[in-house]
Amino acid sequence: MTYKTHAAHTTCPGCQEEVYLDELVKGRCPLCGCTLEDLEDVESDVEELIDRADFSWLILNYFIFKTLTDLGASPLKVMQLVSLYEDACMRDGRSKPDTRFELEISPGRFDTFIPRRCDRCGRVFFRGGRRILSGDLSLPGYTISHRCGRCT
Q1: Do 133 and 140 meet the contact criterion of CB atoms below 8 Å apart?
Q2: pTM (2 decimals)?
Q3: Could you tell me the end-to-end alpha-carbon distance of the chain, in angstroms, rounded to an integer?
């Protein structure tokens, strides 16, 4: 059990209970829903953080990141993909954002022994080339394809 002895807190004017600033829900008391207006200076940074770090977005971002990095994608590219998707959703609340992606992933264990066919030109190759993970965040599943050195 952890204690919040040094965390910023205040007393809610509505229910008179002790409320920690990191527990506020969009600037409101989680117990009674009363707005804490007298804490605007201290609360502005916390409220900004809470608005951006909505719990469902954190869960979604974690699972997208975990899944794609486990498949061998670069963590930086995955974070850029997640950031672009989140920005598009925040910008266009009504229109459906483009959720298709294509990432280069690290070669598998047996990629040097198994012949691969390029998905663009159809050439069969053993060495070189790239392994591409592609899919759509709004649909289940993904595809792994290969591209030869000429088509990269």
Answers
A1: no
A2: 0.57
A3: 53
Per residue in 43-59, pLDDT (tens digit) is 454 454 555 556 777 88
Q: Among residues 40, 22, 23, which one has the least CA distance to residue 31?
A: 23
Task: Answer left, alpha or beta for residue 35, where phi above 0 means left and psi between -120 and 50 means alpha.
Answer: beta
Give the span between the Cα atoms of 113 and 50, in whole angstroms.
50
What is the distance between the alpha carbons of residues 61 and 67, in angstroms, rounded to a whole number?
10
Residue-by-residue DSSP string for 23-56: G-BTTB-TTT--B-GGGHHHHHHHHHHHHHT-HH
Quick check: 43 and 27 in contact, CB under 8 A? yes
Collapsed DSSP state (helix, strand, coil) of residue 138: coil
The two structure tokens encoding residue 18? 């002790």
